[in-house]
Amino acid sequence: MGFLRIEGGTLKGRFIKFDDTGSVRPLTSLIRKAIFDTINIQNLTVVDLFAGTGIFGFEALSRGAKFVLFIEKQKSLCKNIRENLKNLGLENSADIICSESESALKKLSQQRFDLVFLDPPFNYEITQKLANSVLEISTWLTILRRRKGEDENYYCSLFNAKSVKIKHYADSTIFFFFTQKTQSPL
Q1: Looking at the DSSP assignment, which residues form a beta bridge with residue 178?
Q2: Helices 152-159 & 128-137, crossing angle to 10 degrees?
Q3: Which of 151, 167, 175, 179 could be 144's S-S partner, Cβ–Cβ 3.0 to 4.6 Å?
């Protein structure tokens, strides 16, 4: 069993647990802090796509997100997210879809969320179809984490955002794709 610490907000210092089988690559505290210090998450609705441990969604809830939808295909990780929501008293602020991401997005096509966070395995191919499905439900911002050194222009063309900010941390590149024409707060 692995543990991750929530870095900020009302749950700062609390831990979530997860099945540490080596099949997940948790978002590091450095990257989480950098993302949440960059954007204001207050009262936003969030999708944590390819949730894994769910640490991004838990951090978002701790920092004031109104609602988080976790999407994860591994049943053991879904079970961990559910248990962590209960242990932290967040059951009414979140939901979980335990399904493959692309099929879950099809079911959500009529819903809208302020922010979608994508952190698929580094070897997972991000296709135009997936990008379009994400853009269909994201009304303000899509954040994508990829391996540092990958073709940044490829991802920028897939998401075709009104405004893009790119930041590099350790082994990762973080893309902030703003879908509205308003000026980005970064």
Answers
A1: 141, 163
A2: 50
A3: 175
Domains in the chain with CATH codes:
2-178 (3.40.50.150)
Instruction: Yes or no: say if 96 and 123 are a contact pair by the CB < 8 Å rule.
Output: no
Instruction: Look up residue 27 and give its two tokens.
Output: 């978002």
- pLDDT band per the 50, 70, 90 thresholds, residue 2: confident
Residue in the block written with tokens 């991000």: 126
Residue 42 dihedral angles phi and psi, to the nearest 5°: -50, 125
Please choose, from the candidates 34, 40, 29, 56, the residue with its C-alpha nearest in 3D space to the C-alpha of residue 114: 40
* CA dist., res. 142 & res. 74, Å (int): 23
- Please indicate, yes or no, whether the overall pTM of this predicted structure exceeds 0.90: yes
pLDDT at 186: 46
Cα separation, 85 vs 58, whole angstroms: 8
Q: In whole numbers, what is the pLDDT of the chain averaged over residues?
A: 92
pLDDT digits 0-9 by tens, 124-169: 999 999 999 999 999 999 999 999 999 999 999 999 888 999 999 9
If you count them, how many residues does the chain have? Answer: 186
Phi/psi of residue 173, each to 5°?
-115, 130
Dihedral sign (CA 124, 72, 184, 63): negative
The C-alpha atoms of residue 92 and residue 152 are separated, in whole angstroms, by 37
- pLDDT tops 50 at residue 184: no
